Structure formats: structure tokens, C-alpha cells
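ok trying again, last paste got cut off:
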Amino acid sequence: MASSSSLSSTPLPSLMKDEKLRNWAELPSKLTSSILLRLGAIEILQNAQKVCKPWHRVCKDPSMWRKIDIDNRNDRAAFKYDLESMCRHAVDRSHGGLIEIEIWYYGTNDLIMYIADRSSNLKSLGLVRCFPITDEGVAKAVSKVPLLEYLEVSYCLFSGESLRDIGRSCPNLKTLKLNRAPEIMFSNSGFDDNAKAIAESMPELRHLQLLGNGLTNKGLNAILDGCPHLEHLDLRQCFNINLVGDLKKRCFERIKDLRCPNDSDDDSDDGSDNGAVTTFGSQFNETDYHWY
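nice, full thing came through this time. structure:
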């Protein structure tokens, strides 16, 4: 085995020498932006933008904030931040260019109205397990984003009227995910109210997910009548549905991707698996919450 002295005297490969000359702060802005966009909003606001002035300039560019995902699903440390204020700041940075946003847990009626007031070009809105929100709050906010094509709201009870308001406000809506826990399914007095509202006001739907909804066969038929372009239909945990006879035949003939009431929901997105979170935390004070 070579001695440590002989190893230390071995010339460094030219590639390792070149590494000393590389200055990451001098990368072209477009390349830096492409790299930083792989991070989430928390990592950008708390860490990446503090690395150097060129990165800070890139992180303030509105093009960095066309999509906002303040992902706190598998990162308990994220809850130490004021996520609502962080989200508002990210929306402000978009300068009206926000296209897509997904919010887990911390959404409120005030926050989604703040987003809608500043994001007239918004096309995708996800509100997952945001328990403080109401159907009236969602409908009021969505009325300000008529270009919306994708809407996901979970664990929020919707009246038929609120869904009609959403459909009328967003004529281009193509995907609706309206999911609830099965234990609250039967709290809806009119089981088919949601289904009728969807059928009457959302004719352009291609994707519809109704996990745990209380609709019956009558409501399902109404959806098939009112949504002629529907290709993907998820009815898992919709235990008032009885897919037999003509209705079963109609669904299997019409729908390309059909999930039936008793199908497994193991692949439903509940936030339990979100992968690794990238941080630069070792370089910064974790209690520094200043984003500007």
C-alpha cells in the first residue's frame, strides 16, 4: 500500500484542478434558473437565494414563480415557518404570472383570495387537506380566475350551488378532484347535489375524481350525460354507487380510465411519500425567516 506521503505528492488530475477555477455564481442566469427551479419554494426562499447576489437576483425573477409548491407534506421542520406569509411573498414575486399552485394543510379562505386577486392567469389550483377553507371561500376566489383548468379540493364539503358557481366561473375547467374522507360522506343531505351541479355546469371536464362522495347511480348518470368529454373517472369509496347492468356497460364503454367504488385507494395521494427534501441548511441560520 502506498504511504500517505507518496499519495500527497501524486499530481491532481487536470479535472480536479479545473474545479478550482469554476465559479458557480458566474453561470448564465438561464442555467442558474433551470437548476434552482428543481428546488421547492421553501428551499429557495430560506436558503438558495442567500448563497450569493447573482442567485438572489435569479430568485427574484418573476419567471421563477410561475409554479409555486410550498411542500410541507413530509417535512415537519417546515411548520416552524409562517407558511401562509411565505406563500403570499412567493405570489407577490410572480408579478401576476402565476400559473400553477399547490397548497397542503395551511390554506385559508383569505390566502386563496389573496392568490386569486393577484393571479388572473392561474390555470391550476390544488388545495389539499386545507381544513379551514370553505366551499363558499373557494367559489368566491375561483370566480376571479376564469382561465382555471385544474382544481383539486380535499376534505371540504361542497354544496351544489358552490360547485355551480365554480363551473360558471371557469368554463375551461378540465380536471376536478373533489375528495373527502369516507366517514364524512353521509353528512351531505342531498347525495346527488354535487353530481347534478357538475353535470349542469362543467361540460368540458376530462378528469373527474370523487373519492368518498355520496352520489348515487342517478347522479352518476347525470354526470355521464352532462360531461360528454369525460375520459378519466375515479369513484373509489363512493359506496352509494352500484355499477351493474346498463350503467356498468355505459361507464366501461364511455370512460377510458375508470376506478370503481371498491378499487384499492393505496395509490391515492395523501402526502405520505414525497421523497427527499433538498436543503442548504448547513450554511445558514435556521431561525432566519427573512426572504427579501
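cool. Residues 1-10, 185-189, 270-289 have pLDDT under 50 and may be disordered. The beta strands are 67-69, 100-104, 124-128, 150-154, 175-179, 207-209, 232-234, 257-259.
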